[in-house]
Amino acid sequence: MKKIISIILCFVLTATFAIAQDTAKIRQSIDKAAAYLRSTQSPSGAWVTPRTSIGPTTIVLTGLIDAGVPIDDPMVVGGLKFVLASTSENGGIYTPDGFLQNYETCCAIMCLVKANAAFKKKDGSEPYKELIAKADKFIRAHQHTEATNVQPDHPDYGGIGYGEMIKRPDMSNMQFFLDALKAAGAKEDDPAIQKALVFVSRCQNLETEHNKMPFLAQQTAEGLDGGFIYYNQPDPEGTKATEGLRSYGGMTYAGLKSMIYAGLTKEDKRVQAALGWIAKNYSVKENPGRGAAGLYYYYQTMAKAFEVQKLAIFEDSSGKKHHWRADLSEQLIAVQQANGSWINAESSQYMENDPNLVTGYVLLALALCMPDKEHP
After folding, report:
1. Which of 96, 182, 284, 287 has the lowest CB atom count within 10 Å?
2. Range of the domain at 103
3. Cα-based distances in Å from 105 to 88, 177, 218, 372
4. Angle at 218 between CA 213 and CA 222, to 5 degrees
């Protein structure tokens, strides 16, 4: 008996030491990233990117707050001041004269919800509660539904685009929309989330009673793989020709997460198909189906999708079990730049040549990789 107890105690101590080591490595990486972002913040409080808008600033801020930077840190205070200056009378929070109103407002909602939580923990206040409610109303008004004269049989139904200038919906805007709704307190039976599920289901490479979209007829048998595409009306001559009908990682994790938000479980064939695609394409080295393109966007989406499933271990199609938090954090720490930032050195698509934006994405992912985030 004493020998058994000794073995168990040794195992527990070893595991505890490993967790402490992992935590320390991630924390050190986060601290280096925060120091870098402190050095690149502009006097306005924004993080300036090639396309200056509040989008990247809210992503950076959310990552910093998520990663444990105090809410009263001057860097966070300055960033929030910049974001709040972009609040509009209509409830939206976006760059004046910009064309990303919905996307930016969704990002701002997530940022302000995190800030409110930090303030509540610090002093019990929720200074942005009213702003969040108004912004929530703003994004809901832009969803393609009967209220905007879009009927359930239309391919765009339930979807959401960038804003008034780019109304065409897509899975990327959809995942930010649903992240924002959930952050603001929406439940799975919320009408906006259930209508969003209609659009989400129609972006999956899977023919079901929920998806009879014409693009499925253009797809090969191998292509009907359960993964997700960017938009359910792919135009081979259009601006998204590089995505086309091909399933890829960023959108498949976004689709899976969206379905879980809407209350679907592993018993649903759509969830099963998405998990099957991920099992065949699990990777922390590339964005499956796209390689280096959108790699860091993929990383933060992957982390969020596994987190909402409360998964600590994921088994791939070969039967190999992956501790995804360790896999992802080790990869991210390994490619961190000497100055504390991250940048996509292989692809400039989706602004991933901007170290501020990419470092924000990584902070979002690393915050979810901390061992204390694990679920039983």
Report:
1. 96
2. 23-373
3. 10, 9, 35, 30
4. 105
7 part of a folded domain: no
Domains in the chain, number: 1
Query: What single string gives the DSSP state of each residue in 232-266?
Result: SS--TTSTTTTTTT---HHHHHHHHHHHHHTT--T
| pLDDT confidence of residue 241 | 40
17 in a structural domain? no
pLDDT in tens, 235-289: 655 444 445 789 999 999 999 999 999 999 999 999 999 999 999 999 999 999 9
pLDDT given for residue 43 in this prediction: 94
Phi-psi region of 45 (alpha: psi -120 to 50; beta: other; left: phi over 0): left
Q: What is the pLDDT, as a whole number, of residue 98?
A: 82
Residue 151: its pLDDT value, please? 97
CATH number of 54's domain: 1.50.10.20
Q: What is the DSSP string of 93-140?
A: B--TT-S-HHHHHHHHHHHHHHHHHHHHHHHS--TTHHHHHHHHHHHH
Nearest of 375, 374, 371, 359 to residue 47 by alpha carbon: 359
The string of pLDDT tens digits covering residues 189-205 is 999 999 999 999 999 99
- For residue 261, tell me if it sits in a domain: yes
Whole-number pLDDT of residue 335:
98
* Alpha-carbon torsion (330, 349, 172, 143), positive or negative: positive
Q: Is residue 35 part of a domain?
A: yes
Q: What angle do CA 124, 128, 133 make, to 5 degrees?
A: 120
Report d(CA 357, CA 12) in Å as an integer. Answer: 39
Q: What are the backbone angles phi and psi of residue 71, rounded to the nearest 5°? A: -65, -25
Cα four-point dihedral sign 175, 181, 184, 186: negative
C-beta neighbour count of 285 within 10 angstroms: 10
Q: Please provide the size of the chain in residues.
A: 376
pLDDT for 33 = 98
With 0.70 as the threshold, say if the pTM is over it. Answer: yes
Which structure tokens are listed for 99?
Answer: 């064309």
Q: Which amino acid is at 54?
A: I
Using 70 as the pLDDT threshold, list the residues of the chain that sit under it.
1-21, 50-52, 235-243, 372-376
